[in-house]
Amino acid sequence: MISPEDNPDFLNDFLDYSATILNKSSNSVKEYNYDIAHFLKYIKYKFKMTDIKDELEIKTIKINDLTLDTIKKIELEDIHSFLGYLKNNYRSKPATLARKASTIRIFFHYLCNKAKKIPNNPALDLENPKLDRRLPKYLTLEDSQKLLDVAEKPAPTSHGNHDNKERNFAIITLFLNCGMRLSELVNINIKDIDFYDNKLNVIGKGNKERTIYLNNACISAIKRYLDVRPRDGVKGNSRDALFLSEQKKRISNRTVQYIVKEELKNAGLDPNKYSVHKLRHTAATLMYQYGQVDIRALQVLLGHESISTTEIYTHVNNEQIRSAVENNPLANRR
Length: 334
Fold this sequence. Notes:
The protein has 2 domains: 4-114; 141-268, Orthogonal Bundle (hpI Integrase, Chain A). It contains 14 helices and 3 strands. The chain has helices at 9-20, 26-46, 68-71, 76-90, 94-114, 141-152, 165-178, 182-186, 216-228, 253-266, 276-290, 295-302, 307-310, 318-326; strands at residues 193-194, 199-203, 209-213. Helix 2 packs across helix 5 (94-114) and helix 4 runs antiparallel to helix 5. The longest helix is centred in the first third of the chain and has 21 residues, at 26-46. The N and C termini lie far apart (70 Å).
């Protein structure tokens, strides 16, 4: 966590703006702080405003003495140079570079157009690095069913992982049926669940609330867990949390990741190939392939801001392509 004292005032003003006016989550604001601070350290290095000569030591540069006079000198080429530095020294992938570029674009838009602190916006023509359009990794329907079977009926060699089998099964069930994010699952409160209409409200990226509808499998798994969920000794600020750890407090991201990894191993699936986020991919893919769901409905369900993000799930297999050709109404014309 970067302390406000380590930032120049104009950066702290931008972070306040992001938290209040843009309503960004605390995690997003922390990422903004990290990204822009790193960028400004690079600018001091590039403008020869420091004694540091080694690019690998750029992160040690202090920036709280930076003024807007320096910011006004930044040009588009300096931003390109920073992205190149990230790629060369940190092997940053296109998706990471795109996120950094987006943060820089928002930062300069604030300085130029909102706060009116600089006359020109050097990021105005900044483009996002071209992304690799790789198909997401996901479990097949058969593997998904196998994972659920193992989580529901624990193997005798589970090394204690199934002391909380109802909880673990509910977690796997929600991931595979709803496609929610890790942070969304961890932060579910019991009061967020509407058992009458079979739905729950979650807080997604950017503090945006959305409704997730629960099918019978989800409702059943949640109720089975609630029957055994600890009631006594739950830590004060975790009393309303749906999923609890063995310490009787809200379960952590790391614990959920461990649970998923162990369940994957017990199911004979590669935990290095699949992960919590891959279960989200799996849910989205299965819904698209088997549920005949509209792409825009899937976008809302997953909480994607842009439909272009959702479109990665429209990939089809060779059998679907063959079927499409064979079902062409002109296929039998001779």
